[in-house]
Amino acid sequence: MKFRILGSGGMYPTPLPYCHCDICEKARMGSIRDTRSMPALFLEDIKLLIDTPEDIFNTLEKNHVDDIDYISLSHKDPDHVRGIRLVEGMYFDWKKEVPKKTINFFALPIVFDEVKEMNGNTLKFYSDVLKVIDIETCEEKEINGIKITLLNNLTNGTRNVTNYVFEKDGKKLVYACCNAKPFRDFDNYYNADILIISMVDLTKITNPNREEYKFDNELFSIEEIENLKKKYNIKKVICTHLDCNWSNTYEALSKYEKNLDGIEFAYDGMEINL
Fold first, then answer.
1. H-helix segments, the chain
2. 107: phi then psi, degrees, rounded to nearest 5
3. Using an 8 Å Cβ cutoff, are 197 and 220 in contact?
4. Euclidean distance between CA atoms 230 and 239, whole angstroms
5. What pLDDT digit, counting tens, does each position of 82-111 carry?
6. For residue 261, what are the contacts with CB-CB under 8 A and spacing of at least 6?
7. Helix-strand-coil percent breakdown of the chain, rounded to 5?
8. DSSP for 28-56, written as a single string
9. Whether 86 contacts 59, CB under 8 Å
10. Which neighbouring-strand residues pair with 182?
11. Are 173 and 271 in contact (CB under 8 A)?
């Protein structure tokens, strides 16, 4: 399985036009690794795109992705769904007024209902009128020998957020793309080769005594990530969803990474081969 982290950023891309923090300034000066698109993952084997944030058009262009067969949305938040219009742009021929292609759209039933509620009749329009997507709700799916399990993290008992488990030929990757804390326990996570996980506080690498914020309780510490890695016997953890509020410069992350055992920090275009 060949995965690519198309977008390693968080709620907003980096740099932000109004932000002059060290991260945004480095990105503005041309640091590729500090420049981050919003969250998106691509599985090249089956041309599966997970999540469509607002900047997904530019993200696909930057990563040279020009064809998609499957789309899955993890949850209803804007930074994961508001770019769904890409299916119209890519696969409806407005000159001839016919679909060029129909792609498979799948999600957990509750996530589909929440995305539909948040976005009005958009998905129905794309499926019933433009016919560019074919909608499927499921908790498990197999595509070309790749087993995909969709697990509801049910963050804090109220937020329906999908964690994905991909398995093929004895290899396993877990993708916990957003709001993964608290990490709901599933046996599916044990003995994974790779866990890609979001929402890790990396500010304290260079500012250990910073003031506390209300949002801190939604962020993992590195110590908590190490404990998850040990508990589930995971070979490697990759931290993603890194925006400038809770992350650090890539220079600082690279230095810090050298002191960690099997924990890395994502960047746009990062390839993962299993």
1. 22-28, 56-62, 78-81, 86-91, 109-118, 122-124, 222-231, 250-257
2. -165, 165
3. yes
4. 15
5. 999 999 999 999 999 999 999 999 999 999
6. 226
7. 25, 30, 45
8. HTT-GGG-BPPSEEEETTTTEEE---TTH
9. no
10. none
11. no
Check whether 33 has a pLDDT greater than 80: yes
* Architecture label for domain 2-273: 4-Layer Sandwich (3.60)
Instruction: Look at residues 173, 164, 185 and name the one whose alpha carbon lies nearest to residue 228.
Output: 185
The band of 212, judged by pLDDT with boundaries at 50, 70 and 90, is confident
DSSP 8-state assignment for residue 211: P
Judging by DSSP bridges, how do beta strands 146-152 and 140-143 pair with one another?
Answer: antiparallel
Residue 128: what pLDDT? 95
CA separation for the pair 31, 152 (Å, rounded): 36
Q: Determine how many CB atoms are found less than 10 A away from the CB of residue 93.
A: 12
Is residue 120 scored above 80 in pLDDT?
no
C-alpha distance from residue 215 to each of 22, 44, 50, 211 (Å): 21, 34, 25, 12
Estimate to the nearest angstrom the gap between the alpha carbon of 79 and the chain centroid: 10
Question: The tokens of 142 are what?
Answer: 């197999």
* Residues forming a β-bridge with 65: none
The residue with tokens 């931290």 is 239
Mean pLDDT, residues 146-175:
96
Give me the residue spans of the domains in the chain: 2-273
